[in-house]
Fold this protein.
Amino acid sequence: MSDSQPWVFMGGTFDPVHNGHLRTALEIQQWLACDRVHLIPSRSPVHRDEPGCTARQRHDMLTLAVEGESCLAVDAREIESQQDSYTLNTLKSLRRELGDQRPLVMVMGVDAYLTLPTWRQWDTFLSLCHIIVVSRPGYHFHPEVQVSELTQKHRIDKPAALSRRPCGGVLIHELTPLGISATQIRNLIADGFSPRYLMPDQVWHYIKQNKLYGYK
Ligand code: ATP
Ligand code: MG
């Protein structure tokens, strides 16, 4: 693998993983023509309530979801870390591994991007990575002033620009719109409905087997 090829990842709670996550990751991999996109489940989410199952279970569901798909991989660094799941820690850990020169790309939905100013030391992220912001049904790109300024200052238009430097670009990208959320899936299961076809069957089987999210 070439050292100038971007190392691309998408973080999240993945509580549970669904086709919105998986299709996003695959479309980004194909658009960038990189080897793979890494999915990084968080250990203890900093920005939200406790998830409906353990970090290990969220990790196991991700592993089942990407089985047989060589373009997607699961990276367990956050759940194996003793540190809090701050994106800053993850970026620093990846930088230590990749060195200063390799392009590093963080993919996030527009909903996550709009909340960036609430993340620890968010204003240092672009000195460590590039950011790809992907569209998500139900969320519009109406940034408040800090995110708007960040975007204007760092915006790039072509994926090729990601390979020219290690960090510092913001790229906005439209995807096949899939209005799926983990919240919707947790609610369906808790209410006794099937989430089938919103997520891989293997993941749904795992949820049933382990009686997660209130499945009876
Ligand atoms: P929850 O409803 O529990 O918040 P979620 O579906 O938003 O779950 P997360 O784990 O919070 O999933 O999201 C991880 C990342 O994936 C975020 O950057 C989020 O914006 C992105 N994402 C999630 N679902 C979609 C989707 N359907 N389309 C595009 N991006 C998505
Ligand atoms: Mg979310």
Observations:
- The longest helix spans residues 19-32.
- Residues 10, 12-15, 20-21, 24, 108-109, 111-112, 134, 136, 178, 180-183 surround adenosine-5'-triphosphate (ligand 1) (CB under 6 Å).
- Residues 7-210 form a domain with the Rossmann fold fold (CATH 3.40.50.620).
